[in-house]
Amino acid sequence: MKVTLETLGCKLNQAETELLARGLAEAGYELVSGVGEADIYILNTCTVTHTADSKARHRLRQARHRNPDALIIATGCYAQRAHQELARVGGVNLIVNNDEKGQLLRIIEEAHGHVRPAYSEKETTKPRPSASRTRTFVKVQDGCSTPCSYCVVPLVRGRETSLPASEVINEINRRIADGYQEVVLTGTKIGTYHHDGIKLKGLLERILAETGIPRLRLSSLQPREISTGLLGLWADDRLCPHFHLSLQSGSDPVLARMKRRYRTAEYEQAISLVRKSVPDAAITTDIIVGFPGETDNEFEESYHFCRRMEFARIHVFPFSSRSGTVAARMPAQIDTKTKKQRSDSMLTLAEESARDFRQRFSGRTMTVLWEQRTGEGIWSGVTGNYIRVFAESKEDLSNRLMPVKLA
């Protein structure tokens, strides 16, 4: 049986898809990249915005059009939030909620009415690093117990849970055995990791002590989770100097309406601490524009705060109302035209900030993890602080860590 898996949305979804791929491969299924040759197509969906929902519906219809005979399965957050809505998408055979995602292999077998494919140990294939993926995502945590007013994630992911440290370490060691050079720890809120008395700092200490992973990267943290003790771990250069700290708005009144649990002064203090402790760190962020009630002055506050923070990368999102959230019921919803204008302004700033950050490292020698060939003899890779680098080489550079002088 041939299976194609596709993922929309966050790094947590990607981590869960990787686990599913491993389970399917170990059970004797063949993983293929094209839906046209697949017996089974699985889409791991996102529902954080209307755009994410639309993409999911489009991919599912496209898969059915390209392969009328395939078993089409939708899982993930959209499946969890709007089961009936997805059921109206033509050609979807199975809809599997998030809380059933771990049972997908059994569900597939029951749907086909057969036991696992017969295979020998010699024939078993496992997902291996490819030219397009040399980093791997490992889930350490799930859920959120402190919902923001705009966010649908707690409704589809549930309350906070953390995986045992030993399970995380075993999974990382399996990825190392598969040849991966970089592991990204991911979850809904990894900064709240807590299992059997071990918090995030303790988990990182154990990973660094008990695995030989060359690179370890964190997916996202909150400002209040930044501390001198945690940052001290970055003395080990295997920890990537890259911190994703979601801001969402640089205006305190908007942050209050969003129910974010910090204000701009606290956020700025966290950034200052990171830059003092890890001087070459990239700090990336998310920004929502057009939140309900956002005035012109509040947008300007947010824009100028982002300029002052000198982010390495800004992900810009126009506010997307999600049913079931507090923000969806707020008055003074912002019109589409205004959200588009504010998005364009913030995206221009994002481009300027990213360029300025990259230029700071011109002439520096930094270690690059080469990922894939992007053209005839042109290779693409990333530094530890997430600068995208290109180089010309006739050698196969994929999945190699090499010192490179940046031009």
Give a topology summary:
Layout: E1 2-7, H1 11-26, E2 30-31, E3 40-45, H2 50-66, E4 71-76, H3 77-81, H4 83-87, E5 94-96, H5 104-112, E6 135-139, E7 141-142, H6 153-157, E8 161-162, H7 165-177, E9 182-186, E10 194-195, E11 198-199, H8 200-210, E12 215-218, H9 228-231, E13 242-244, H10 252-258, H11 264-277, E14 282-289, H12 296-309, E15 313-318, H13 336-359, E16 365-375, E17 378-383, E18 388-392, E19 401-405
Parallel strand pairs: 1-2, 1-3, 3-4, 4-5, 6-9, 9-12, 13-14, 14-15
Antiparallel strand pairs: 7-8, 10-11, 16-17, 16-19, 17-18
Helix pairs in contact: 7-8, 12-13
Task: Walk me through this protein's architecture.
With about 400 residues, this protein is an alpha/beta fold. The chain has three domains: about 110 residues, Methylthiotransferase, N-terminal domain (Rossmann fold), CATH 3.40.50.12160; about 220 residues, tm_1862 like domain (pyruvate-formate lyase- activating enzyme), CATH 3.80.30; about 40 residues. The protein is built from 13 helices and 19 strands. The radius of gyration is 22 Å and the shape is globular. The chain starts with a strand and ends with a strand.
What are the main properties of this structure?
Rossmann fold; 407 residues; 3 domains; five-stranded parallel β-sheet; four-stranded antiparallel β-sheet; pyruvate-formate lyase- activating enzyme; single chain; alpha/beta; 35% helix
If you compute it from the alpha carbons, what radius of gyration comes out, rounded to the nearest whole angstrom? 22 Å
* Basic shape: globular
Strand order of the largest sheet: 2-1-3-4-5
Q: Which architecture of the largest domain would the CATH scheme give at its second level?
A: Alpha-Beta Horseshoe
